[in-house]
Amino acid sequence: MNFLKQDRCPLCGKEHLAKVMTCTDHYATGESFDLFECKDCGFLFTQSVPVEAEIGRYYESPDYISHTDTHKGLMNKLYHWVRKYMLSRKACLVKKQSGLNEGSLLDIGTGTGYFAQTMKMKGWKVSAIEKSQQARNFSKEHFQLDVDAPEVLPTYASQSFDVVTLWHVLEHLESLNETWETLFRILKDTGVLVIAVPNPTSYDARKYKEMWAAYDVPRHLWHFSPSAMQQFGAKHGFALIERYPMPFDAFYVSMLTEKYKKNSFPFLRGCLVGAQAWMASLVKKDCSSSMIYIFRKKRV
User: Fold this and answer.
1) Burial (CB count <10 Å: 0-12, 13-18, 19+), residue 221
2) Which of 93, 102, 264, 275 has the fewest CB atoms within 10 Å, i.e. is most exposed?
3) Rounded mean pLDDT of the chain?
4) How confident is the model at residue 65 (pLDDT cuts 50, 70, 90)?
5) For the chain, first and last CA: distance in Å?
6) In whole angstroms, what is the distance from residue 276 CA to residue 263 CA?
7) Which residues, 6 or more positions from 267, have their beta carbon under 8 angstroms from its beta carbon?
8) DSSP letters along 137-183, please?
9) pLDDT of the residue at 198
10) Going by C-beta distance under 8 Å and a sequence separation of 6 or more, which residues neighbour residue 74?
11) Neighbours of 50 (CB within 10 A)
């Protein structure tokens, strides 16, 4: 197997990298992967992950919630209830930040297509990208959505979209800086870029340390703090306009972490930590388990 090893920080380009912890792939293989931090800018990433062409087996499980529609089990039922609520919130956020009732939208990493379908039903002209053939088939069968494969992304015309969204996707993409460049090119000058990612400086991440489920190695290559997200945006011509907490994520991530730790009553324990994390995010939103970042192109 071939591995992607970072000799320089993807954010600042410096070489002062150091191992900070080792995490286990509790989801698929039980293998261990090291997290490294740049000592110059603080960016955190998973070192020596399988290259994109070979990482597929680490996604192979019927329990991979973002690419399935199962309602089996309490946590999956909770996930789907929260998803329904969040779809409405996401649609409202897009409308508020773009100032548009309708427009052109690209959803990258659309999964099974629920958000893309939500925006389509609201009158938006929607394009979508998804790596999983199974998920693309689901979108076609259930929503009549024609979802493109990732290799189509570079072929989109410049300034094609009013809004581009990546909901918990950027942390999976191997070609990180190239993706930022493409996002800048395909977004209209007046457009809005919406990115949601887990937050490794959150309350629950600090509590659980290397056991935190949202590290999700090796599927999550990059771990974006609020500072790192702002720096990446600035590096590629974007200004960070606003950021929003995603407090519900702390409940699901904490329940999953308690399950990985093999603790008794993982649902109840996860709810307790999730509630504590939620309260922490009310005091300081950067403590939220996941964050939504709103970017616009910098004015020249």
Assistant:
1) buried
2) 264
3) 93
4) very low
5) 45
6) 18
7) 74, 75, 255, 258
8) HHHHHHH---PBPGGGGGGSPTT-EEEEEEES-GGG-S-HHHHHHHH
9) 98
10) 267
11) 19
User: Are 132 and 169 contacting, i.e. CB atoms less than 8 angstroms apart?
Assistant: no
pLDDT digits (tens, 9 = 90+) for 91-137: 999 999 999 999 999 999 999 999 999 999 999 999 999 998 989 99
Token match 């995010």: residue? 281
Alpha carbon of 91 to those of 31, 42, 81, 185, 199: distances in Å?
38, 33, 16, 23, 22
Alpha helices by DSSP H, listed for the chain, are 74-98, 114-121, 133-143, 176-186, 203-208, 226-235, 248-260, 266-283
Res. 53 pLDDT band, cuts 50 70 90: confident
Give the separation between CA 224 and CA 10, rounded to whole angstroms. Answer: 12
Contacts of 144 (CB under 8 A, 6+ apart): none
If you compute the radius of gyration of the chain from its CA atoms, what whole number of angstroms results? 18
